Every structure is written in C-alpha cells, then in structure tokens.
Amino acid sequence: MTNSYQNEVIWIIGASSGIGAALARELSARGARLALSARRKGALETLKQSLGAEHKIFMLDVTDSELVARTAQAIRAAFGRMDRIIFLAAAYTPMKIDKLDLAMTRQIIDVNLLGAFHVLDAVLPILKEQQKGQIALCGSVAGYTGLPDGQPYSATKAGIINLAESLRSELPKVIDVKLISPGFVRSELTDKNDFKMPAIISAERAATHIADGLLGNGFEVHFPRRFTLWLKLLRILPYWLALRITKTFKHQE
After folding, report:
1. β partners of residue 37
2. Cα(55)–Cα(25) distance, rounded to whole angstroms?
3. 0.85 exceeded by pTM
4. CB–CB of 55/34 below 8 Å?
5. Over the stretch 35-58, which tens digit does the pLDDT of each residue have?
6. Residue pair 150/184 in contact by the 8 Å Cβ criterion
7. CA 205, 154, 183 angle in degrees (round to 5)?
8. Rg value, the chain, Cα
9. Which fold has domain 9-247?
10. Beta bridge partners of 178
C-alpha cells in the first residue's frame, strides 16, 4: 500500500459513517494524521478508537459558521497545519418537487451547500497563509443533470459542482481543488432509497477511489466509471434530447 499520505494532516468533515468513516480508515492506513468531524460524538469516538491515538475528534455542525471557524483554528493549533480538507457532510431525504417538506429542504441546503461555504470561509485564509494545501468537495453524479425525484439533494450537489469549478479557476495553483463525484455508494443515505441503484459499490471501494484520486493531477474524482461516464454523456447532450431521456427515469408511484 502506498504511503503517499504519510504524516499529512487531513480534516475529514462528515467522518462518522458511510464514505467518511471508510475514508478515515483508508487514509489512516496510508499514514495520515486525521482531524475527524461530524455531529455524532459516539460514532466519532468509536471510529477514533479503531484508528489510533494520533487522530483527534472535533465535533462539528457545518451549519454553524462560527463553530466551523473556531474548529478550523483549533485543528491548526493542534496539528500545526492543514494539508487537505475533505468536505463530505451531507443530508438527504428522498422527496418529489411537488411534495416538498420545506423544513427538511432547508436543512439539506444548509448542510450540503451552505455548510461548504462555511468551511471554505474558515480554511481558505489558512491555506493561503501556508501557500499550499488541498480542498476536496464532495458533489455527486446526481448533480450532473436534473433527474426525476432528485430534488432538493441533487440541486445542492449541482451547486457543489459549480462551486468547485469556480474555486479551481479562481484560486492560486498552490491550493489544489478537487471535486469528488460518487455514483451510488452503499450507506445510511442510500438505504433510504426504494429504487434500484445501478452500479452501487461499497463505502470501502469508494474510499479507495477517493484516496487514489486525491493524489492525482486531475480535477474530478468520479466513480464507478462504468456508471459515471454514461451520465457524463447525458450531461453534454442538447437539452431537447437529454430531457426526453431523463423523463424515462421517472420512478413509479
């Protein structure tokens, strides 16, 4: 196994379960020192115990901008620097656009999109001062194009894709920006779905894809490619054709 992450300080936001927890195990095995953040203290403590004393827990609600800022400073004080920040925090509840739960919709937007802005506001000054570092934002192939029954989760992931693209073009080259675009990954979030999920993979496989991809020179880490490449093709089709195709994806009542 490569040791390319040896002694790197990596802040994983959304580390308590799913892809985040699997990625923490993968990066720890590759030699990283981890700052682990999420809202669920018990799950984080259990994860830390399985990984080792060199890692630290920082409880976090990404919807609280002041807490995010304090946490970023606390991590820098504890470790001396930040090499990579990986934003994986996500909220998801399946719902149709004509049957929105507005309170839940607000929560999804606050966590998935506004939370990313809070993190960026907190860490960009640190990375600019360091003159190096990486920011990885987790979007989703659900954000590639509008799909039936995808709201509001898919809309927030489209926003993350746009945000990452803007950052990549705006920030100096010393700050590396990565977009993570998973397909279906088996987790607590996808367990809520009542439809067939093509090419679904385990969180452990997703973590391997991410850990390998963050070391590369490319902008986007997307997987599994047998699924994501097909959706990328759909994304570049003219609207009259793409929308005709997406209508066929509608889930039955």
Report:
1. 13
2. 11
3. yes
4. yes
5. 999 999 999 999 999 998 899 999
6. no
7. 20
8. 18
9. Rossmann fold (3.40.50)
10. 136
Distance between first and last Cα of the chain: 46
Per domain, the residue ranges of the chain are: 9-247
- Whether 94 and 142 have beta carbons less than 8 Å apart is answered as no
Task: For residue 68, give the amino acid letter.
Answer: V
Q: Which two tokens stand for residue 140?
A: 């989703």
What pLDDT sits at residue 186? 83
Backbone angles phi, psi at 178, to 5 degrees: -125, 145
Tens-digit pLDDT profile for residues 152-188? 999 999 999 999 999 999 999 999 999 999 988 887 7
Return the axis-axis angle of helices 153-170 and 102-109, rounded to nearest 10°. Answer: 20
Q: Is the peptide bond before 152 cis (omega within 30 degrees of 0)?
A: yes
CB 92 within 8 A of CB 138: no
Closest CA to 159 of 174, 175, 140: 140
